[in-house]
Design goal:
Elements (H helix, E strand, L loop, with lengths): L6 H16 L4 H10 L12 H19 L16
Helix pairs in contact: 1-3, 2-3
Length: 83
């Protein structure tokens, strides 16, 4: 699947979502926790609050897009019998 998350990106984004949604930490506090645990960005840089927010926002948007059932409406259906 093109654009699929790597195992590291899944682990990192899952942890960010848990810290934000379940524990209510700020993005700055999440960055500090992750740095203390040795996490770095997927490209190897230090994680700042902006990076944490970006990862959080993109993962939430991706999950909404992929996990939300599509709205389907069928209208104006005609059935003809051809002989």
């Amino acid at each position: 699947m093109i654009g699929a998350y790597s195992p590291f990106q899944i682990e990192l984004s899952d942890k960010i979502i848990r810290l934000r949604d379940a524990e209510g930490l700020t993005y700055k506090a999440i960055a500090e926790v992750l740095i203390a645990e040795g996490y770095r960005s997927p490209r190897g840089f230090d994680l700042g609050p902006e990076s944490v927010f970006s990862i959080y926002k993109k993962r939430k948007r991706r999950d909404d897009r992929l996990l939300t059932a599509p709205a389907i409406r069928i209208s104006a259906v005609e059935v003809e019998h051809l002989t």
